[in-house]
Specification:
With 364 residues, this protein is of the alpha/beta class. It has 2 domains: 2-130 and 329-360, nicotinate phosphoribosyltransferase; 143-327, Alpha-Beta Barrel (TIM Barrel), CATH 3.20.20. 34% of the residues lie in helices and 16% in strands. The strands form 3 sheets. It has a 6-stranded antiparallel beta sheet with strand order 13-12-1-5-3-14. It has a 6-stranded parallel beta sheet with strand order 7-6-11-10-9-8.
Length: 364
């Protein structure tokens, strides 16, 4: 399981409130639902001495928990008297099941209750991305997956999504922001824009890239003319050992020119977009021309189903670039008060649940 693999490698560690950049308006209830604000004021006036325990859980099995460290930092930064609170939590990277408590907070409600929906939101998004990445990585294994989530959502989500993808087991990411919380720089190839500016000459774009970054292997983006095999061979001939890989990013709306005179050979098979039959042909063409060292990267619309299709067809892929399918928010957390002044009391169906895996959190 991912949490054991990463903990054994020393990759999963507690992040602190120095890691995250929070909006200072959180303390002024700017992001708090109005009824939590009203509840806080009512409790302050009528029963401020009450001690409660709030319990957080979600409803799916085999979820990769993520966002716990961010939530702990949120509590430490914005709760009133955070050191008076008892906080018990699991760890980022833990595999959790439906209904399993991942976080419990005990203290005066008015000290932390206004953070409830913020905590739900952080855990939901982070766990969803980490879980999507984890299952995609497991599907693609042993082929690595490259996180291309920079263009699928608002830029303000990049730090959190990048960390979540890391917890889920991603191999590499696009932006510096993606790696901000865990210390990894972004990487990538070239955009179609570079080829266009070079007059539509893919080889010229690669030569310019090689000249500008002399210590890097080049990954050529070879679908600009929708003739991936031809452009791959031209780039390989020009760059020789400097060419490390080619990337095929063909849209599903078009069919590569390789199939122009071969459609009858693939009758009944899906040959539009980036498909396994194109990649098989590309691998053979590179090998036959003496470029066995050149790897193949694929992107455009990849998810678990598409990766499974490529694996079933034994497509020789060296890396998958995946974006939007990793950012679907399909995990939702709920916070409930389950104990009042040391006695169990909760909404029916939301009773306090013991979890021996919870660890007591010590604030700095």
């Amino acid at each position: 399981m991912i949490e054991l693999e990463q903990k054994e490698k020393g990759l999963i560690k507690r992040l602190t409130n120095k890691t995250f950049k929070f909006d200072s308006r959180i303390k002024d209830y700017w992001y708090t639902a109005a009824y939590f604000i009203k509840t806080t004021k009512i409790i302050e006036q009528h029963c401020p001495e009450k001690i409660v325990t709030m319990q957080f859980f979600q409803r799916k099995n085999n979820v990769v928990l993520c966002g716990i460290d961010e939530v702990i930092a949120l509590i430490q930064t914005f709760a009133t008297n955070p050191k008076s609170l008892k906080v018990e939590a699991l760890n980022d990277g833990d595999i959790i099941q439906a209904g399993e408590p991942v976080l419990k907070i005990t203290g005066h409600y008015q000290d932390f209750g206004f953070l409830e929906s913020l905590i739900d939101g952080v855990l939901s998004r982070r766990s969803a991305v980490a879980t999507n990445v984890y299952h995609t990585v497991m599907c693609a294994k042993p082929t690595p997956v490259f996180f291309m989530g920079d263009r699928q959502d608002a830029y303000t989500n990049q730090q959190g999504d990048g960390y979540s993808a890391y917890v889920g087991g991603i191999a590499a990411q696009c932006t510096y922001a993606h790696g901000e919380w865990w210390g990894k720089e972004g990487g990538g190839t070239m955009p179609h824009a570079l080829i266009q500016i070079m007059g539509g000459d893919t080889t010229k774009a690669c030569i310019a890239y090689a000249d500008t970054y002399p210590n890097e292997k080049i990954t050529a983006l070879v679908d600009f003319h929708n003739d991936c095999i031809k452009d791959s061979l031209l780039c390989a001939e020009a760059l020789k050992d400097r060419l490390g890989a080619v990337r095929v990013d063909t849209s599903d709306s078009i069919t590569d020119h390789y199939f122009d005179d071969k459609k009858e050979l693939y009758d009944g098979k899906k040959i539009n977009g980036c498909n396994p039959y194109l990649i098989i042909a590309l691998r053979k063409a590179l090998d036959d021309a003496g470029y066995k060292h050149v790897k193949i990267v694929v992107s455009s619309g990849f998810d678990i189903d598409k990766i499974n299709w490529f694996k079933q067809e034994n497509a020789p892929v060296d890396s998958y670039g995946v974006g939007s399918s990793l950012l679907k928010i399909n995990v939702g957390y709920t916070g409930d008060l389950v104990i009042l002044d040391g006695k169990k009391l909760a909404k029916e169906g939301r009773e306090d649940k013991p979890n021996p895996r919870l660890e007591i959190v010590k604030f700095d």
